[in-house]
Design goal:
The chain is mainly β. It has one helix spanning 24-32, and strands spanning 5-7, 14-18, 39-43, 54-57, 63-65, 75-79. It has a four-stranded antiparallel beta sheet, with helices on one face. Strands 1-5 form a two-stranded antiparallel ribbon.
């Protein structure tokens, strides 16, 4: 379940935010090793809004598309770990 979207940040579902994260896999690893993290969103390094930004979430209540406008396909989200993933 890797989506071209971002999970919507709420008042109590964001665990951590980190800049300088170069890849989706690295962001997923951050989630895997962060207690309480179940989902992540990574913005590509060429994103104009949040380049190389990784946000970790405890839960996913809703999400926003990254397929509109200038940020088309510049972010991706997913669960901490998917069966069969090697991270």
């Amino acid at each position: 379940m890797h989506m071209v979207s971002t999970f919507q940040a709420g008042s109590d579902n964001v665990i951590s935010s980190k800049s300088g994260v170069s890849s989706e896999v690295q962001c997923q690893r951050e989630c895997l090793h962060t207690p309480g993290c179940n989902f992540y969103t990574h913005f590509a390094e060429d994103s104009e809004t949040l380049p190389g930004f990784c946000q970790l979430f405890s839960r996913c209540e809703s999400y926003l598309s990254c397929t509109n406008g200038q940020e088309r396909n510049k972010c991706s989200s997913g669960p901490k770990k998917v069966e069969g993933d090697e991270i």
